[in-house]
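Q: My labmate handed me this sequence with no annotations at all. I'd like to see what the chain might look like in three dimensions before we decide whether it's worth expressing. Could you predict it?
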Amino acid sequence: MQHLYAVQSIAELREFDPFYSAQLRTSGYQNPGDGGGGDFYWDAEDMQPDDGGLVFKSKLTTKGRWRRISNGSWDIRQFGALPASGDVTQQFQHALDACHKGGSLYIPSGHYTIRQPLRVHQGTTVHGDGLLSEIHYYGSAKTGCWNAAQRSPATAMTFKGLNTFVHTQNTRAYTLTGMSFSRFDNLFVHLRSPNTSAYYGPANGESPYYNVFTNCHASGPGGDS
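A: Here is what I predict for the chain of 225 residues:
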């Protein structure tokens, strides 16, 4: 009879010997109840890279991986992106890459710091809790926080219930280039520096088309300095 063992964190999962059980449950990512826990199974033949969300390498063996069980709907905390935990760009991108064949990513209420552009794959839904799901973008000039991973075109994306703060001059919240047949619902953008924009899509042959925007708001200096 196979037993389901439980541990408190991902750190303990990495140190658990799969000899005792090929099924494991974590109560959290760093601490119990932080929203990053879940159910896992041991794949003794897997050699995929550890992505900190779906695939975890054991500290006890080089071969085999712990794999997260899910239905294609992810929570950003399952990838270690916990609110107010510093730069979580890498964790966000790993979570978005988990949706490369389509999927849903939930960003719960909290403050999240992003320092590089994020690439969103075709067929992905990114959703949050409205004003309370704060994504603070500090990327370099002439970049955007949210971008299409595929450029010509990336279709059927959905963004809803997100609050993106743009902190660097000459940056934007959404780069629409390549995005088509997509939805933008209940979005908030706060422009915290001059020469910033909420939505940007130049007429360069990759302009987006057939998109739907509902209940989207932008505020702040924007425009010219």
